[in-house]
């Protein structure tokens, strides 16, 4: 009798546990979701510059249009497992079920650029070039790239002309005295070098300061800066076309590639630390300069900056920072219309 009761109870436990397991099994014990679409091919970057209008233009041509919203489909996978053990008896089971979940999203500018980059790469439209390659090697790499080709320049040292930085440093409505204008000029160039050297000495990494004497200028130069300060400030606040470059434009060795990267200043990130070090530039080669007679002059930038730069004659020379060198592309060279600049 006792043995029969024990068997009955045991059987009841097993049956009850199995029933609980069955209920739990069918309600599910976990779910995972994964996007059906392929993710971007690059890690989320910080953007120095992004021309959203061109991103939409090019992506629309490749995909036959760009929607204001998109339907994102995710695959939801549910796995169910149940195992019950009682008095030597074990009941187990597993099941799986998949379903699709859709949601409508509004694409961001950065998401569209990531998709454009993937599409250009997948279609074979994108050429990748190391901008840090030696001068002649870089020129040879561009030798086979035709106008209209999309390029991705890695390790580009993007340079913003100093007169543009000077215009950003002063207030458009302020009337600077000659001395104050000169002080503002030093803050965008010479003083930065001295600060770096001083920091090295204070950190114990150097024992010598070179060129620590205060840079001097005659009164005519200071007056020219003061007269040009307001003009430059007004120009840079109109979202002008700026003759940026990948590398130095002046005193470059013969045979080195001269690369002009004209961009709209208003689209440039205010976080200037992003420009400290190499960046990646994605854009289209709109002009290839292969012969001396094909030299290109960026007349749009020249027209904007010629007068204020000539007034502030410290920017007008052919040395480093000269306007003439910035707006001119000599052979071998290229004009690259940027779509995005990031790191």
SSE inventory with pairings:
Elements: H1 2-27, E1 31-35, E2 47-50, H2 52-63, E3 70-86, E4 89-105, H3 109-122, E5 126-130, H4 135-143, E6 150-156, E7 158-159, H5 162-169, H6 178-187, H7 190-202, H8 219-236, E8 241-246, E9 258-264, E10 279-289, E11 296-297, H9 299-311, H10 323-327, E12 328-329, E13 333-342
Parallel strand pairs: 5-6, 9-13
Antiparallel strand pairs: 1-3, 2-13, 3-4, 6-10, 7-8, 8-9, 10-13, 11-12
Ends: how far apart? 81 Å
Helix content: 25-40%
The overall pLDDT average reads 76
Q: Report the major sheet.
A: 8 strands, mixed
Helix run count: 10
Model regions low in confidence, pLDDT < 50 over at least 5 residues: 1-38, 72-77, 85-89, 100-105
Query: What would you report as the Rg, rounded to the nearest angstrom?
Result: 32 Å
Percent strand equals: 25-35%
Q: Helix/strand-derived class?
A: alpha+beta
Query: How many strands in all?
Result: 13
Question: What key phrases describe this protein's structure?
Answer:
343 residues; 28% strand; 13 strands; alpha+beta; eight-stranded mixed sheet; disordered N terminus; three-stranded antiparallel sheet
Describe the structure.
The protein is an alpha+beta fold. 37% of the residues lie in helices and 28% in strands. It contains ten helices and 13 strands. The protein has helices spanning 2-27, 52-63, 109-122, 135-143, 162-169, 178-187, 190-202, 219-236, 299-311, 323-327; strands at 31-35, 47-50, 70-86, 89-105, 126-130, 150-156, 158-159, 241-246, 258-264, 279-289, 296-297, 328-329, 333-342. β5, α4 and β6 form a beta-alpha-beta unit. The longest helix is centred in the first third of the chain and has 26 residues, at 2-27.
């Amino acid at each position: 009798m006792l043995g029969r009761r024990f068997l009955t109870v045991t059987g009841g436990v097993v049956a009850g546990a199995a029933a609980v397991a069955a209920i739990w099994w069918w309600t599910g014990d976990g779910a995972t979701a994964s996007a059906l679409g392929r993710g971007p091919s690059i890690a989320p970057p910080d953007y120095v510059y992004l021309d959203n209008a061109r991103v939409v233009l090019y992506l629309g041509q490749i995909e036959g249009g760009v929607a204001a919203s998109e339907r994102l489909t995710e695959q939801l996978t549910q796995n169910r497992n149940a195992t019950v053990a009682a008095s030597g008896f074990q009941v187990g089971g597993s099941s799986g079920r998949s379903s699709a979940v859709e949601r409508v999203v509004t694409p961001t500018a950065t998401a569209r650029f990531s998709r454009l980059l993937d599409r250009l790469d997948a279609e074979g439209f994108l050429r990748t070039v190391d901008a840090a390659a030696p001068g002649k090697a870089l020129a040879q790499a561009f030798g086979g790239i035709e106008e209209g080709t999309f390029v991705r320049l890695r390790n580009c040292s993007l340079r913003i002309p100093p007169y543009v930085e000077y215009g950003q440093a002063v207030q458009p409505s302020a009337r600077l005295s000659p001395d104050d204008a000169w002080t503002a000029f030093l803050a965008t160039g010479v003083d930065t070098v001295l600060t770096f050297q001083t920091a090295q000495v204070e950190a114990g990494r150097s024992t010598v300061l070179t060129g620590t004497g205060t840079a001097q200028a005659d009164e005519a130069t200071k007056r020219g800066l003061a007269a040009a300060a307001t003009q430059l400030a007004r120009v840079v606040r109109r979202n002008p076309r700026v003759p940026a470059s990948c590398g130095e434009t002046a005193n470059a060795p013969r045979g080195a590639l001269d690369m002009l990267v004209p961009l709209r200043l208003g689209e440039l990130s205010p976080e200037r630390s992003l420009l400290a070090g190499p960046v990646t530039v994605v854009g289209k080669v709109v002009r290839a300069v292969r012969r001396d007679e094909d030299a290109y002059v960026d007349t749009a930038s020249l027209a904007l900056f010629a007068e204020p730069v000539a007034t502030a004659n410290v920017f007008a020379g052919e040395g480093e920072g000269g306007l003439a060198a910035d707006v001119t592309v000599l052979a071998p060279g290229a004009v690259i219309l940027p779509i995005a600049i990031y790191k």
